[in-house]
Amino acid sequence: MIYNKGELTVICGKTKSGKSTKAMDIAAKMLKNDMSVLYIDSEYNDETFNARFVSNLSGVKFETIYNSSYTKEEGSKVFESTIFIGEKFNDGYRFIHEYMPKLQWYTPGISGHLSVPLKNHISTLIEDNIFEHKISFVIIDFINNLEYLPLLKKLTLDNNIAIVCVIGPDNYNADRIDQIWDNLVMFNAKTNSFELVQSRRLYNE
Fold it and tell me: Is residue 138 exposed (0-12), middle (13-18) or buried (19+ Cβ within 10 Å)?
C-alpha cells in the first residue's frame, strides 16, 4: 500500500490481532525506502520496543531476543537488524521512537474532550521532529480516544506528512471517524490479515 503525504490512515482490529506488528511492518518498509519515521508509542518503552522491532526485522522471536537466548544464526540476524536500526537513528535521526503512555489514558465516554496541554504536546512533538529531523512519516501506536483523529488529520495537511494511527480494538465507530480518515485498514478474521477496506483515493499494493 502507498501512503501519501497529507493523508491519515487508520488501522483497527481485535485485541491481539497484530496491530502493533502491522505498524512495525509499515515502519520497516518506510525506513527501507529511505523515509524518515517518527514512531509515537503508548505501549512500549525504548528497551522493549527496540527488542520487538528487532524481532520484527529479523524474524527471531521477541522472547528469544529479550532473554539473549538465540542461536548463532539467530544472533547474526539480530545483529544485522540492530545495525540497520542504529544506522537509521544515527543518519540524521531518520528513525525516532517516542514513548508516550498518556495516549492510553483518555477513553471515549469517560474522559470527555482531550486536554489542551496533551493536544499541544502531540502537535509540538510532531512539528518539532519535522523541523529538526525532516520527518515525513508518523506512526502512532495506539490511541484509545477517537478525538485525536481530527487533530492528526489537521497535522497531515498543515505539514504535508503521512500519518498512520492504530486505534484501540473497541473504539472503531464508522459514524464518528468516517469523515476524518483517508484510508481505513481493518483486520479480516477470515484471511487472518489486515486489508485496506476503504479509501478516499485509488491505491496500489
Answer: buried
